[in-house]
Amino acid sequence: MVVVRPFNAIRPNETYVSKIATLPYDVLNSSEAATLAKDNPYSYLHIDKAEIDLPSDISAYDKRVYQKAAENLSLFLKKGWLQKEEHPMLYLYQLTMNGRSQTGIVACTSIQDYEAGKIKKHEYTRPEKEVDRINHIDACDANTSPIFLTYRKEDTIQALMDQWKAQHHPLYHFTSFHDVTHQVWGIDDPAVIQTISQTFDTQVPALYIADGHHRTESAVKVGQKRHEEFPEAGKDAAFNFFLSVIFPKEDLEILDYNRVLKVPIPENFFQQLEKSFIIKKVEEGKPAKAKTFGLYLKGEWYALFVKEALIPNDPVEQLDVSLLQKIVFESIFSITDIRNDQRIDFVGGIRGMGELENLVDSGEWTLAFSVFPTTMDDLLSVADAGQIMPPKSTWFEPKLLSGLFLHDLESNKK
């Protein structure tokens, strides 16, 4: 079972919350972040992507960037824009987009549980991305953004969440990027906190990383480093835990994560496809069911239906993204390293089929493939099997905003 515990959150003063909270660091480049934070001194991007406050010729990974992040965090605290909670609490964070809501528990989860495989992953991480957040967390001495976790819904926890929301006013209630409404409730009743924590400890066997594998690895490695630096601190030291938002999987929706290629088209392209697919010309490219792909080429959409005999039982190999990779990208175009091959790129489903059409019609890309979304059950099955999904298998919306919660590692108190 898993540890979920309250913490003394660093969070925005209610007056400034809508100005502070912003998109997460890993969906923005430095230029986009600078534009977004322009004329907004409250933006959390001054902490999360502090290179925007330094000369443009300084690398985003220069040590001065992380020093600046720590300075800006101290400044936000000094000015009272961010404030640290006096008592440990849990929080509920609800995001509503297009009439659909998801509510998670904001808490600290255990590095020891991650090491023991009770917090399960489904992606590999890249060392250079880990190093960036390791340096950021280390310099700020805080988990500066949460990990997006999920679990199979548990009735007692769900009932307590629903009851708390119904009986209490939210701390924050505002609408931000992409018209997503964000609400946060603080759970300060020790009995309710204890019940939630005990129920996770006795009824929830595992948590799963939905999004944030690099942040998880980085948070864990900084915590391990602190443990070595302060061996006498004890198992309850703040740095032995990391900041998470934990949603029941039934609340979550994975959007499609589509692909565009820049490749020469073989003369017998459709003949090669017909070995594995039943092909139909269609008006609209969004697949209606699993094991179906949309192909956009020369202004036309085609539906590609995978022949049933080619669908394996393995939880990873049967994924739509795996089938497309093996049958088309590897077999026809010899694209094997999709992380680094410049002939392929990825387009989040929130941008729609029109974006795929625009990218191909512009001549920037040759053809596009739309993909039926990976399901939450797929994600959990792969993680339970101890396997790894192909890169770019999932796109979650809405995004958790950064700047709403930080977790102080409290190393300066050891």
From TrEMBL:
Q: Which InterPro entries match?
A: UCP033563 (IPR008323)
Name any one Pfam family assigned in the record. Answer: DUF1015
What is the name of this protein?
DUF1015 domain-containing protein
Q: Give the species this sequence originates from.
A: Enterococcus phoeniculicola ATCC BAA-412
Taxonomic classification, please? Bacteria, Bacillati, Bacillota, Bacilli, Lactobacillales
